[in-house]
């Protein structure tokens, strides 16, 4: 394991190496990398110029930030079954603002890094993932056959109304109206 690469990061790269050596047709291996995960993965990616990268960004930084803050608060990162458990987000406007500006910075810097890489890449806005025909588009980009049974195992848990996700939403609209980001207060996915 390279120095500084954690168990998860090393496993992901090693999985790619094993798939490349495998005699079966396992050319398609994927993993989710988020800024904030081990940076050694970014460095190691250059060793595999044939990897195709799908970069998913989310225009609604408020929704993106609330999702992260909610996961940090509840320690529930992904849901594969519908769950009636709802714990409202306790973050206030400044905490949310801090996170959304971090995400905005990532979305400014990551494409610059991506342009320096040899990888073929595709940029997708989060809502496009839910559009009809997205699976076919992603398969065409990756060069794999579309299978109608391809579906995410994740299940949406929260309301589409962003403010419904807060314990005390009162100050959130005021802040986002003052900062001219009120477009993020409504439904993200309609």
Descriptive report:
- The protein has 190 residues and is mostly helical.
- Helix content is 39%, strand content 5%.
- The chain has 6 helices and 2 strands, in the order ααβααβαα.
- Strands 1-2 form a two-stranded parallel sheet.
- The radius of gyration is 19 Å and the shape is globular.
- Residues 52-166 form the Sulphotransferase Stf0 domain.
- It comes from Aliiroseovarius salicola.
- InterPro entries: P-loop_NTPase, Sulfotransferase_Stf0_dom.
- Residues 1-21 are annotated as: Disordered.
Short descriptors:
single chain; 190 residues; mainly alpha; 2 domains; 6 helices; 2 strands; 39% helix; disordered N terminus
Please outline what is shown here.
The chain has 190 residues and is mainly alpha-helical. 39% of the residues lie in helices and 5% in strands. It has a two-stranded parallel sheet with strand order 1-2.
SSE order in H/E notation?
Answer: HHEHHEHH
Instruction: Return the structural class.
Output: mainly alpha
Sheet of most strands: 2 strands, parallel
- Anisotropy-based shape: globular
Output the radius of gyration: 19 Å
Biggest sheet: strand arrangement = 1-2
Helix count, DSSP H or I runs of 4 or more residues = 6
Low-confidence stretches: 1-13, 18-25
Note the gap between the termini. Answer: 45 Å
Kindly report the average pLDDT value.
77
Helix fraction by DSSP (H/I, runs of at least 4):
25-40%
Beta percentage is 5-15%
Count of the domains: 2
